[in-house]
Amino acid sequence: MSLPPEAVNAATALRRFGLGPRFDLGEADQAAIAADARSYLKTQLKPQAALLHGEGLEDSKANLIAAFEEQQQKKMLRDQAAQMPAAAAAPMQSMEMAGQPQPEKPMPVQRDVLLTEVQARYQKAFDDQSGLIERLVWFWSNHFAISIAKGTLSTITAGSFEREAIRPHVLGRFADMLKAVEQHPTMLFFLDNRDSIGPNSKAGQRRQKGLNENLAREIMELHTLGVNGGYTQADVTALARIITGWTFAGLNNTNFDPGIFVFNPNTHEPGASKVLGKAYAQQGQAQGEAVLADLARHPATAQHIAFKFARHFVADAPPPGLVDKLAASFRSSDGDLLALTQTLLDDDGAWATPAAKLRTPQEFLLAASRALNLPPDRPQPLIRALNELGQPLWKPAGPNGFGDTAQDWASPEGMKVRLSYASLMASQSKLATNPGDLAASLFGASLSQDTRQTVSRAESKPQGLALLLMSPEFQRR
Amino acid sequence: MSLLCETASLSRRRLLGLSGSLVASAFIPKFARAADGRDPRFIAIILRGAMDGLSAVAPVGDPTYAALHGDLALATSGENAGLPLDSFFSLNPAMTNFARLFGKGQAAVIHATATGYRDRSHFDGQDVLESGYAGPGKTDSGWLNRAIAALPAGQRIAPPGNGLAVGAIAPLVIRGPAETLGWAPANLPKPGDDLTRRLLDLYTHTDPKLAELLRAGVDTQKLASGAMAGMDNSDHPNDMVLQARGAARLMATDDGPRIAAMAFDGWDTHENEGGAKGRLFNLLTGLDGALAEFEKTLGAAWGQTAIVVMTEFGRTAQVNGTVGTDHGTGTLAFLAGGAIKGGRVIADWPGLKPANLYQNRDLNPTTDLRAVLKGLLADQFGLSAQRLEKDIFPDSGSAKPMQGLIRT
Question: What is the ipTM of this complex?
Answer without folding.
Answer: 0.86
